[in-house]
Amino acid sequence: MRHATPGAATPDADTAAPQSRNEGMLRRAIMNEYAKMHRLKVLPLYILMPVGIIGATMFESLGAGLTRHLTDTDGTAWKLVTACMGAGFSMLMPILLAVIASRQADIEHLGNGWLFQSTAGLAPGRLCRIKFIATGLPVILVSLLAVAATTGFALAVGVTGPVPWPRLAGYAVAVTTISLIVLTVQLLIASRVENQLAGIGIGLIGFLLANFAGAFPDWLAYPTLWGAYAKIMPAGYQGESLVWNDTPYAAVGVLAVIAAVMFLWITARFDRMEARS
């Protein structure tokens, strides 16, 4: 039987040490991205997301006569509130996500940060993935907060009837997933194109798609990505009647898988391009 020499590294220790170093580097890189957000004043943009969405929901739903339907037994009030919430997401998220991605990437372009980070062991593709983690986590939080705040607003103004928790939860998952998908696209554009007006312009086009792609067939709306905002609306009008819409989990799931694979593949190519250069 072999006895380990005191103080000698074991195979498990040899494996664990690089893994621990990688995890430490990842944590430091993510914290560095949050420090950049602080310097770039990105936090107000994240605050604007739920505040703007709940503000748009309040303005639109009250303007559409919410107070006349507070006690309706057919759930009209909840349909109206959630439809206006969906419109708020469609109006704000495409633009704000484009601006956030632009600011996080532009600092690397201006300060030759891509090269500097590469010398520190973070190739461009890996840095893009870290930026997605750092920017995506707040997107998840503010999206869930916006849905929760909308629910609180409806209860506060006196909407009666059962709270449609399954529909609210389904929409929260769907809209958060679509927002993360859009964020990956905006980050890739902002990372490879130095002129950040390009990414902002894509965000403006996305704003139009998010608000008007409801009239598109599914096969056209979903591939545009931003058009998915219109297709996942929790409620909407059919003629003059407000009706519930089923959450398209399958379509959103397929988009998420495709987006994840493409994002990982493209960022891996960024790494290989850096290695060859």
Q: How would you explain this protein's 3D organization?
A:
By secondary structure, the protein is an all-alpha fold. The chain has one domain. Helices cover 74% and strands 3% of the residues. It contains ten helices and two strands. The chain has helices at residues 11-39, 43-63, 76-110, 113-119, 124-156, 165-192, 197-212, 218-221, 228-231, 249-276, and strands at residues 235-238, 241-244. Strands 1-2 form a two-stranded antiparallel sheet. Strand 1 and strand 2 form a beta hairpin. It is elongated, with a radius of gyration of 22 Å.
- Total number of domains: 1
Q: How many β-strands, per DSSP? A: 2
Question: Which percent range fits the helix content?
Answer: over 70%
Average pLDDT, all residues: 88
Order of SSEs: HHHHHHHHHEEH
Report, as a whole number of angstroms, the end-to-end distance. 50 Å
The parts where pLDDT drops under 50 for at least 5 residues are none
Main beta sheet: strand number and arrangement?
Answer: 2 strands, antiparallel
Determine the structural class based on helices, strands and strand pairing.
mainly alpha
Using the CA coordinates, give the radius of gyration: 22 Å
Q: Strand order, biggest sheet?
A: 1-2
Provide the β-strand percentage band.
Answer: under 5%
Shape: elongated
Alpha plus pi helix count = 10
